[in-house]
Specification:
3 helices; 2 domains; 324 residues; disordered N terminus; Immunoglobulin-like; 20 strands; mainly beta
Length: 324
């Protein structure tokens, strides 16, 4: 009787230990339970395009995928990218996603119809009232795999900015009136969209003085320090004829000289100011050269250190230009 009671107690003890161990394993092993989640907000912004004829640049984002087959958008959204420049953003969606590190984001562009059901889904509007389809009418969608680097933490909110650089992502063929504007190649279009955690970026802003009489329009380009090549960068490169191809970001200098370069990853930068002039009076600006500039108040425009979440003021004086 004592032996039987002893065996019963031993079995009950082993069963209890097994139950406790199983319970702990389920809580500790993410594969056996629900993975912890963090909140992510997706925002879109745009770097300016150089063509003054363009008054609208519409893209329809049908899906966002983060290492998963699940679409993180509730519904597709059509955005006029030109409405969100100089640090302005459009919030396109919020999602709860698995905690972890993300290296890639895939976005799907609907090429057939916009969020209102009108065709096409991605297009340019010009000052003459025309609408230009950016992709062949037979293509349904375009999927782009974008490199990124951000972390999602449990019960924390992260803001992810997708920065479209239209001058790298759209090409113009002035000789073809039927297909005047098109997306660049998938590779160039992918490289034209930067995806980053907003918390890890900073801004360069300031004022350009002394440009009067030098050029009608100035665009400032931000390069990683030492990366600018004054022989190759101003030249049209590749089949898509992209100028200033390796610039991290760019901005139009306003008539009063003010400029802002938002959403730059922390690092060291150099600024290049390119001058444009309508030489043949056809309404289109032609590149004429880079401005000779000096930083004011001790700023070296060839080596500006930028930390995350900081804004560095860069005031610059123009003293002429180097012709093309």
């Amino acid at each position: 009787m004592k032996a039987s009671l002893h065996m019963l107690m031993l079995c009950m003890g082993l069963f209890s230990l097994s139950t406790i161990w199983s319970s702990c394993e389920k809580e500790d092993d993410p594969l056996s339970g629900v993975l912890p989640k963090g909140q992510v907000q997706f925002q879109v912004t745009d770097a300016p395009i150089d063509n003054p004829e363009i008054n609208g640049a519409y893209v329809t984002i049908a899906g966002i995928y983060a290492d998963s087959d699940s679409n993180l958008l509730d519904k597709k959204i059509t955005i006029d990218l030109l409405a969100y420049q100089n640090g302005n953003v459009k919030i396109i969606g919020d999602a709860n996603i698995d905690v972890g590190s993300y290296k890639n984001i895939e976005i799907a562009l609907d090429l057939q119809s916009d969020m209102w059901g009108n065709s096409p889904g991605c297009y340019i509007t010009t000052s003459d009232g025309s609408k230009h389809n950016l992709a062949p009418s037979t293509q349904l969608e375009k999927r782009l795999n974008l490199s990124t680097n951000f972390n999602v933490e449990e019960d924390m909110s992260s803001v992810i900015v997708m920065d479209f650089d239209l001058r790298k992502g759209i090409k113009m063929d002035s000789s073809n009136t039927a297909v005047k504007y098109q997306f660049t190649s998938d590779n160039n279009l992918t490289n034209a969209i930067r995806v980053m955690a907003r918390l890890n970026t900073g801004s360069l802003m300031g004022k350009l003085e002394g440009n009067s009489g030098i050029s009608e329009k100035v665009v400032v380009y931000a390069y990683q320090a030492g990366a600018y090549d004054d022989h190759s960068e101003p030249m049209s490169q590749g089949t898509d004829q992209i100028t200033f191809r390796n610039a991290v970001n760019s901005a139009l200098v306003q008539h009063d000289g003010q400029f802002i370069l938002p959403f730059l990853p922390k690092g060291d930068y150099e600024l290049v100011f390119a001058g444009y002039y309508d030489q043949d009076q056809d309404g289109e600006m032609e590149y004429i050269g880079t401005l000779i500039t000096n930083g004011l108040l001790g700023i070296d425009v060839g080596n500006i250190n930028l930390e995350a979440s900081n804004t560095v003021e860069v005031n610059v004086s123009a003293n002429g230009f180097l012709p093309l």
